[in-house]
Structure formats: C-alpha cells, structure tokens
Design a protein that fits this description.
Strand order of the largest sheet: 1-2-7-8-9-10-11
Structural class: alpha/beta
Bound molecules: MU-OXO-diiron
Radius of gyration: 24 Å
CATH topology of the largest domain: Metallo-beta-lactamase, Chain A
Number of strands: 22
Length: about 400
C-alpha cells in the first residue's frame, strides 16, 4: 500500500473502508463504504494532517512509510476529534514521541478524554500558523462543522483547503479525485452526506462559507477527510453547499413515505402520488420497511416537499415510522413543505404525532392531514387523489 502524491510534496495516506455500511451509530447508511483521509506534507518539517479510524492505522502507516520514515513526522494536525479521524492519533504519537499535536483548545479537552494524556499539544486559534520551513499551515476554527472543536487547515503556498468532514462523501474507491469517478455516485453521496450530517447546521455552514469567501482565500484544491478530493473547479462543492444551506436548490420531486398495516394507508399513498404526478411533479415513493431512512432524507434535501403517512396503532404511529420522524426532528428541514396522511380504526392519533414531528423540525405544514376510517371507499380515494393535486399546487 503506497501513498498517493496529490500535489507536490502532499500525499494521501488514508485508509479505504469498502465494508462499512453504517455510520454514526446506524443512523446513516453507507452503501458505497467510505475512506478515512489523512494527508502527509513533507519538507524541512513533516506534518500529518488528520489520521484514520483506529482499525485502519496499519494501512496508514504503510502508506506513510512509502514516503518517509514515521520518525520524521514533527506535527500531527487534528482538525476534528471524532474517532474516525483521531482513532490512530495515539499510535502515531506513541511511535513519534517528540511530535507536536496541533488542535483547537476544545479539541484538547475531547482528545484528553478519549485517549491517554501526556502528549505535547499546541492549541491554535483562527489565523495562527505552523511553519514547516517555507510551507505554511494556517488554521481556521470551524465550530459546529460539524463538532464544536472542528477546524480547517489551509496550506497557504499551495492554496489547499483541508476542511476535514466538510465537503466529504462516503465513497470507497481506489481513485482519489472527484473528476475520476462516476459523477452520479459522487454527487449523490455528497448530497446524502449533507442531508444526514450538515442539514441541521445549515446556518453555521452558510456563515462559515461566507466568512471564508470574505477572506478572499484562493483555493486550488479541497481535500476533505472522507471520499474524493476536489481539484477541478473545487468551488463547485462550496457553491452546492451554499445552495443546500439556503434551501435554494430545489427539483421537481415530492417525497411520499409511509407504512401500512392492512393496505389502507398504501392505497391513500398511491392515490396521493397519482395526484402529485398529474400536477407535473415527480412523486418519489418510499414504503418505509423497504426504504432506507438516510436515502429518504437525501431525496428530501432538494425535493419540493414531503408527505408522511401512517395508520394508527395504540393511538400513535407504527414503530417503523418513528425513525423517519426522528430524522425530521433532528435534521430540521426548516421550511420544507409537508403534510401528513393516514388511516385509523377505533381511534386516531398517528397524523397528530406526525405533525408534531414536522413542527419540531420547523417545517411548513401546507395542508390539514388527510385521514380516513377503516378501508378507503372509491370516493375517499378520489379525495386522496385531489389531496395529492392540492399538495402539488401548494409546493410548485
Ligand atoms: Fe465527524 Fe468523519 O467524523
């Protein structure tokens, strides 16, 4: 396993995880695996920027050793203390006793709690620099992108931004650059990553990007900590993040997601979808037990709106629908247009519960819930179809 030189004297020395299918405690599915990107900058002094997840340390050390002896590392820059990037840091500092660990003050607290103490730590603030001997690393604190201790590293002379998790994708491949891979997979994974990690932080994303733009930093390369490196038109991903953060990138799709007990709610969902379709929008149907919650949220990021349906069980929702409602509450698709639908037998309750989650997610409920008792009649299905048309007109 060898390092990959991405620009002169800057090497990718990360790990490729083809197997991982779940991230962040099973809250995020990674159909294409991921990479843990670490970067080595060699020169008069050598720096390692971020490390890999612990189980991938051997892969990282093999790649480092193909360029320099591990002993030559003088600085270990930790942009983010989460374990998929800091997991191998203790082993690096164990092998290279005199290396200095560079991170924010907040990261120090996290790293000391995660790992044994006793390291040589240099805390940095925005604008502070480390000189590698004619090669300058400047640091920018980036709180809540996506943890409070996060920071970006900027390699001044090469105009290279290393923003850790920002601008990444969970995409395992032997290729290293975004222009070398399937563009549909690349952008889908970037979209899914934003929706499931950064969506609730959109205000901070917007503010930080505007701050960096105001600084006028020239950027030739963006090297994130997951997935592919952006070297051709690197600002395209920055522009896309701004559009997502502002909710400005909207397609013609409407997400319809539901579960059913005895098919009544499915019949309603299908009638609503037909109405949405006949208004010229594209319904994306996700029957919850067969769908992936993080894919649903990825679909929602650019969609015009979402309809969530569920029958009533014990005056509440079916348990299968709870994860979707949790995502709406915590990922906060602020202002996204939405409505609830469902069926019931002896007592209602599911649509109320769905609406509560939509309200917690600060979404825009555009219609009263569509709800019916027992099995839908033909007349009720016609009303569901009209409801779909009305929803489409509201979100067009
Ligand atoms: Fe926030 Fe890739 O860890």
């Amino acid at each position: 396993m060898k390092a990959v030189e991405i620009i002169k004297d800057v090497y990718w020395v990360g790990g490729i995880d083809y197997d991982v299918r779940n991230f962040h405690g099973y809250s995020y599915t990674t159909h294409h695996g991921t990479t843990y990107n670490a970067y080595l900058i060699t020169g008069e002094k050598t720096a390692l920027i971020d490390a890999v997840y612990g189980p991938f340390s051997d892969e990282m050390f093999r790649r480092i050793s193909s360029v320099v002896s591990t002993d030559e590392i003088q600085y270990v820059i930790s942009n983010h203390a989460e374990m998929d990037h800091s997991g191998a840091v203790p082993e690096v500092l164990d092998r290279v006793k005199n290396a200095t660990l560079v991170c924010t003050a907040r990261a120090t607290d996290v790293l000391k709690k995660h790992y044994p103490d006793g390291w040589n730590i240099q805390t940095v603030k925005t604008g502070e620099e480390v000189d590698l001997g004619g090669k300058t690393l400047r640091f920018y604190e980036a709180p809540m992108l996506h943890w409070p201790e996060s920071m970006f590293t900027y390699y001044v002379e090469e105009e290279m931004l290393l923003p850790n998790d920002a601008f990444g994708q969970h995409y395992a491949t032997e290729k290293r650059f975004s222009d070398e891979v399937d563009q549909n997979v690349l952008w889908r994974e970037a979209e899914k990553y934003y929706a499931n990690i950064l969506w609730p932080l959109s205000r901070m994303v917007q503010r930080k990007i505007e701050e960096v733009v105001e600084l006028g930093l020239p950027i030739k390369t963006i090297a994130p900590s997951h997935g592919l490196i952006w070297r051709k038109d690197p600002l395209q991903i920055v522009t896309r993040y701004l559009e997502w953060a502002k909710g400005e990138r909207i397609n013609s799709k409407v997400v319809i997601t539901w579960d059913t007990m005895w098919q009544s709610t499915t019949k309603i969902a299908r009638a609503i979808a037909s109405g949405v379709n006949d208004e010229g929008l594209t319904p994306l149907l996700h029957l919850i037990p067969h769908s992936d919650r993080s894919d649903i949220m990825a679909d929602l990021l650019e969609a015009r709106g979402i309809l969530v349906g569920c029958p009533t069980l014990h005056n509440d929702i079916l348990p299968t629908v709870a994860p979707i409602l949790s995502d709406l509450e915590v990922l906060k698709p602020v202002g996204k247009k939405c409505a609830a639908f469902g069926s019931y037998g002896w007592g209602g309750g599911s649509v109320k519960r769905i609406q509560e989650s939509m309200e917690r997610g600060k979404m825009d409920i555009v219609l009263e819930p569509f709800v019916l008792k027992w099995v839908p009649t033909d007349d009720e299905l016609t009303k569901a179809y009209e409801y779909g048309r009305e929803f489409a007109r509201k979100v067009k």
